[in-house]
Amino acid sequence: MSRLASFALFFIFIVSLSVIGSARSIAGTHAIAKSKYTTSHSLGDSYTFDPRDGWQTFNTTNLHYKYPRNSASKSSKPNKPETVVEDVAAAAAALKTLKGIGDTVKVTWYTGQDLLNPSCWSNVNWHPTDESFVCATTLTGWTNKPKCFDFLELCTHPSKCIFVRVVDTCAGCQRGSHHVDLTRAAFGQLAPFDEGVLNVHMRPATQPTSWYEDLWGPKYGDMTN
């Protein structure tokens, strides 16, 4: 083999290694960026709830749960004392500036067949999985409830907050209740699954700068409600 051919092969080998290294680096960077939206974030343990920051607490009552108590897809513990978390934060690094007032809401989780046919689209081939970060809200009676495709920040504590997107409605949630049904992965970032029902603070968030369809669904679509 001539020196020229050997040099060409060596050059191709070096370029291939560079391409593979770059691809791995890009994949690693992508994974790190995505993890900001799939793991809970802390907004500072020292933050204390203050109405001057634009947050407001609403009284909540016990709800009629979407599923029977013996359902395998959701666990609820109505006899367990409930804690209303009063500490929330004013900003989040993963998204742009948050807007609006806070709200205390009930949070549960859903899975299985209930993930199919999200009602915020009239015709879409996508549906959430257990690993998505989306939610369903009370179907009727919640005045000024979050709209389809809104992003929300939910916190059980200043050190336990997540972001989710509204893509569905919960027909089984009590009329007029402030109730948010989360996917399994989203709920699991806030509490153990056997908690079943949580009280959290919520406020609107702006859309993220990067988009992951597996987490939130198609970026654009026709809203049906």
Describe the structure.
- There is one protein chain.
- The protein has about 220 residues and is an alpha/beta fold.
- It has two domains: about 40 residues; about 170 residues, Barwin-like endoglucanases (Beta Barrel).
- It contains three helices and six strands; from the N terminus they run αβββββαβα.
- It has a six-stranded mixed β-barrel with strand order 1-5-2-4-3-6.
- The longest helix is centred in the N-terminal third of the chain and has 36 residues.
- The radius of gyration is 22 Å and the shape is globular.
- The relative contact order is 0.22.
- This is RlpA-like protein double-psi beta-barrel domain-containing protein.
- It comes from Mycena pura.
- InterPro entries: Expansin_CellWall (IPR051477), RlpA-like_sf (IPR036908).
- Keywords: Signal.
Please write the CATH class name of the largest domain. Answer: Mainly Beta
Say how many strands there are.
Answer: 6
Per the CATH scheme, the topology name of the largest domain is Barwin-like endoglucanases
Beta-strand residue percentage: 15-25%
